[in-house]
Amino acid sequence: MEADFVIVGAGSAGCAMAYRLAEAGESVLVVEHGGTDAGPFIQMPGALSYPMNMKRYDWGYETEPEPHLGGRRLACPRGKVIGGSSSINGMIYVRGHACDYDHWRDSGARGWGYADVLPYFRRMEHWHDGGHGGDPDWRGTDGPLHVTRGTRANPLARAFVEAGQQAGYERTDDYNGEKQEGFGPYDMTVWRGRRWSAANAYLKPALRRDNCDLVRALVRRVVIEEGRAVGVEVTRGGKREVIRARREVVLAASSINSPKLLMLSGIGPAGHLAEHGIEVVADRPGVGGNLQDHLELYIQMAASQPVSLYKYWNLLGKAYVGARWLLARSGPGASNQFESAGFIRSAAGVDYPDIQFHFLPIAVRYDGQVAAEGHGFQAHVGPMRSPSRGRVTLRSGDPDDDPRILFNYMSTDQDWSDFRRCIRLTREIFEQEAFKPYVRHEIQPGAEAQSDEALDDFIREHVESAYHPCGTCRMGRADDAGAVVDEQARVIGVTGLRVADSSVFPRITNGNLNAPSIMVGEKVSDHLLGRTPLSPENAQPWMHPEWKTAQR
User: Fold this and answer.
1) Which domains are delineated in the chain?
2) Do 465 and 513 contact (CB within 8 A), yes or no?
3) Which is catalytic among the residues 294, 468, 527, 544?
4) How many angstroms from the chain centroid is the CA of residue 428?
5) Is 501 helix (H, G, I), strand (E, B) or coil?
6) Cβ-count burial of 239 within 10 angstroms (0-12 exposed, 13-18 middle, 19+ buried)?
7) Is 468 a known active-site residue?
8) Taking the model in full, what pTM does it have?
């Protein structure tokens, strides 16, 4: 079995590349270990808490004991299904801030500044404003990826935006347009009441072409002959075989599995590979390093009125939601319910937002456990640019063994001070007039948690991953010892091999990572095809005119 291009991983970036390469007439094989995305658990947006907690759809990774969180092991879900993590995520669509990409460019990823990536965001989007306004000149309207907005019919969702303005923050009608900073409506990858994953947007249309096929198999390693990647060794149907690439192999297996596969193939820190008896093909110390993530807390409030989604949190309520969605793709099940957003700066002197809010009109955890208080609501809040860095390493030389994942969360004083500030700023928003009709009391952290010490205890016990791992195959200059891929996503030290997923991010972007991951697939597809990149667009983002002296 062979093709021009072999893509490992049918996730966000892999699906986008399959679509663009097949569209250009190249033969493509996409190798994916996961199965079908059929069924309401994935396709119904309101059921988002289910697939990431199901072994059928999730690799089930967890971290090593995190030393700064009392030895807690945190979940690290990664999609094991077509569409990858875009089939199990929260469907929130955030490009990131323009300054994120300018930082990429200035740190050695030439050609990845905001002016360079904006045309790719526009190419991939089919944006619908839903009557909520926005910045149409900054958005794409004919791409494969439908991006929509919820109705924000719940009064709590509207109150959150009003409270942000009452607290003195900006309003933004389109945080993916000119102005990220402020409070406004969230974009989501939902179309006609259905999750619009990378599989629905890109992979399924690509597979309708004669030159693109999906292979269900577990990739064990990249096959490298005389310094060139020529294919991948897989296990399929209980047997090992080699799938060969006439032109290139592309790893798009996630920021956890892409570095794992590189190391199993002999590309990584030489000493670490030797420990596991792996012959070194290319000594790249950066493979697996630079691991980053977003952490968040749920600031939960008990509601004084029965206005939250809690009324559906019983058998009859869930049956109603499910039936309405199955029959008409409408009702609460047709939205991810993250319909109001906030992006703010934590302090004067911070030039662009470094705190993100997700508002949810129910007090519930990602694992589906609701607060005992009944009706309530919450804001997910966390800092966007933690200085902490971790690493993905091999547990053994056996491809069937999970890798070791250590984020080294909360390893700096800045992490702790940033999170205390997040809690206090969120409390201030919930104290505004817009929430007065709805607030009964604070569920967590709880009114008694006021001191730095009490807040630190709460953070240590309750902080959770936002499931945004990235950075483990960092993009940079070829002469940068810590870089793994160059500015065209080519693995340094080997030919015929690229990495294209969130692992190439030099630094984590501001917000959820699905949109930037798809953008990487879009842009790398042009590099694979040898095309001149899309022409840069020098649109200037809005920056707070008094950011040097004012926090809001």
Assistant:
1) 1-148+187-288+392-399+470-531 (3.50.50.60), 151-185+295-383+411-462 (3.30.410.40)
2) no
3) 468
4) 28
5) coil
6) exposed
7) yes
8) 0.97
